[in-house]
Amino acid sequence: MKVLLVCMASYLLVVNGGDIINRCVLAKMLHQEDLDGFEGYSLPDWLCLAFVESSFNVSKVNENVDGSFDYGIFQINSHYWCNDYQSHSENFCHMDCQELLNPNLLSSIHCAKKIVSGAGGMKNW
């Protein structure tokens, strides 16, 4: 029972210290969403991507020189993957970019799966 309570509490406290997600909590979420081994990428690959792109900051937004923006923990680009309503977007993930800033990460995870399933895999980052 204690373990269940600790797990539930850690899941509810996904975001701490601003919008920085705990690495272990992120690993658990990625594992639950079947990213370990997805398209040949291991859980450490996904954790490394999240760390390099956003330092585990789920609400990070970065403006690029071309006028597009990168959103969320995986820094998903508005030009191709989501609609920020500020510039032209292909919107291949069929979502508003603001969804990529949600601490539950499901939108970010689903879009990241779409990105790595295409040509280039993680090299798209």
From TrEMBL:
The secretion signal range is: 1-17
What Gene Ontology terms describe what this protein does at the molecular function level?
lysozyme activity
Q: What keywords sit in the KW lines?
A: Disulfide bond, Signal
Q: Name one GO biological process term.
A: fusion of sperm to egg plasma membrane involved in single fertilization
Q: What is this protein called?
A: Glycosyl hydrolases family 22 (GH22) domain-containing protein
Q: Give the family from UniProt.
A: Belongs to the glycosyl hydrolase 22 family.
Residues forming the Glycosyl hydrolases family 22 (GH22) domain are: 93-111
Please name the PROSITE patterns in this protein's record. GLYCOSYL_HYDROL_F22_1, GLYCOSYL_HYDROL_F22_2
At the top level of its lineage, which domain of life is listed? Eukaryota
Tell me which GO cellular component terms the UniProt record holds. acrosomal vesicle; sperm flagellum
Spell out the Gene3D superfamilies in the cross-references.
1.10.530.10
